[in-house]
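Hey, quick one: can you model this chain's 3D structure?
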Amino acid sequence: MSEHGVNDLQNVIYQRPDIMVDRATHFCPGCGHGITQRLVGEVLDELDLKERAICIGSIGCTVTAYEYFKVDGMEAPHGRAPAVATAIKRCHPELVPFAIQGDGDLASIGMAEIVHAAARGENITIIFANNANYGMTGGQLAPTTLMGMYTSSTVKGRKQEHHGFPIRVSEMLATLDGPAYIARVSLHNPANVRKARKAIELAFRAPMAGLGLGLVEVLSMCPINWKVEPVQSLDWMVKNMIPQFPLGEFKCLPEVAEMKKVVKG
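Sure thing. Here's the predicted structure for all 265 residues.
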C-alpha cells in the first residue's frame, strides 16, 4: 500500500494540494468557496509559492482563508484587502500577496480599494468570489444581487428604483490601464472548474512577472441564501447568474496570453 492508502498498482490522480491544511472547511453544503480555495491551493503548489505567498483574508465568508493554506497570512479590515496586499508587495517585492474576497466585501465597502489598486497596476492577485449576496451575515442585498432577486434585505426583490442595477466588476475594471489580467469564471461543472483553475494561475503569473494586477471573478454557488438545494444551485447558476455575469476574459495583456502556453488546463 502507498502512503495514500491505495494499492501500489493504482495511480493517484487527485489528492489534496500539499500547500493546503488537512482540515474540513467551514463553508455551507454546496458552497463554491471551498472549490475556489482548492484551485488556489493547486496553483500555489504548481508555482512553488509556499515560501513566498501571503494570504489575505477579508471580511465575509472568506475571512479565515489563510487558515487553509500552509503560508503566512493575515486579516484585512472590511474591504481593504487590496490595500493590505499593496503594502506587503511594496515593502517586500519578493513576496506574492493574494486576497480572496466576496462580492459584499470587494464590490461594496471595498470598491474604492480595488478600483484604485487596479488603476495603479499593483502587482497583486485578487480572487473575487461572487455569489450575489452577503453570504456570511444573513444573505442581504449586495452590489451584485440580481434584478428581482429576493434577499433578507430585499424581501420584495431587487428593484431598480430602490436599489439600482447589479455591478459588473470585471467589465468595469477591464477599462483601466493598470490590470494585466481580468477574467470571470464559474464552478457549475467540471469543465468550467478546469477553466477557473487556468484563469487563477494566470492571475498569479501576471503580477509575479511585474505586469500589473491579476483578478479572477469566480461565480460561486450559495444554496443557503439562494434557497435552493445544492444540486439545484448549479442550474440556478446557469439560468440566472451567467446571463447577468457572462463568462470570459475581459483583459489579457499580450504577455499574459503568451503565458497560456505553459499553463495547465
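One thing worth noting: The chain has one domain: 33-132+143-259.
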